[in-house]
Amino acid sequence: MKNIIAFAGSNSKNSINKDLVTYASTLVENATINILDLNDFELPLYGIDLEHEQGIPENAHKFLNLIKESDGILLSLAEHNGAYSTVFKNLFDWLTRIEGKMFYNKPMLLMATSPGGRGGLSVLEIAKGRFPFHDSNIVEVFSLPFFGNNFADGKITNEDFNGQLKNATEQFNKQI
Ligand SMILES: Cc1cc2nc3c(=O)[nH]c(=O)nc-3n(C[C@H](O)[C@H](O)[C@H](O)COP(=O)(O)O)c2cc1C
Q1: For the NADPH-dependent FMN reductase-like domain, which residue ranges apply (predicted)?
Q2: What is the pLDDT of residues 66-94, one digit of tens each?
Q3: N or C: which terminus of the chain carries fewer CB neighbours within 10 A?
Q4: Atom 23, ligand 1: residue with shortest CA distance
């Protein structure tokens, strides 16, 4: 069995990106899915002075090890002001202080959703441009716009978007 980690780039208790990544995880075959919540990996706000004074927090090491030991990553990014949410950027910054190549070339299905019509396209563009510097292996990218209209009862209700996600997870399945 493959070992997949799935998480949202959000710390919202009602994260729609966590809903999406959880649904996507049900489409992955022959794998044990570990759904992570960034609230369980609390980290201080990154600062170079803090790092010099206190070192790198244990939770950053824990999270990085989960990536390292996984066979693939399902990640759905929340978009805040056209970019990463603060909690995700903070985690990203801490992780890169331990290991620049922090994605370890693990196959990744990169997603985003938002209540609006762009479905997190801006943050996806940022991630697609940046993650390759950190040894990412982005197999597929999927965006779900208008979350409130297209998702209910734990799954995507719109057939076209559901088909797109199924195709994306199929490609992901082939890579893990
Ligand atoms: C500070 C802030 C900025 C936001 N900026 C954007 C944005 O630029 N684009 C967008 O589509 N949604 C934006 N939103 C709405 C989020 O997409 C929405 O809150 C969504 O639920 C976030 O994902 P999450 O539920 O997984 O945390 C913003 C929300 C907040 C709180």
Answers
A1: 3-129
A2: 999 999 999 999 999 999 999 999 999 99
A3: N
A4: 78
Q: Which atom of ligand 1 is nearest to the CA of 116?
A: 11
On average, the pLDDT of the chain sits at 98
Place of tokens 């199924």: 166
With CA atoms as reference, report the closest residue to 136 among 174, 95, 165: 95
* Predicted confidence (pLDDT) per residue in 96-120, tens digit: 999 999 999 999 999 999 999 999 9
134 CB less than 6 Å from ligand 1? no
Regarding the beta carbon of 82 and ligand 1, being less than 6 Å apart is answered yes
What confidence tens digit (pLDDT) does each residue in 16-39 have?
999 999 999 999 999 999 999 999
Domains of the chain with CATH codes: 2-175 (3.40.50.360)
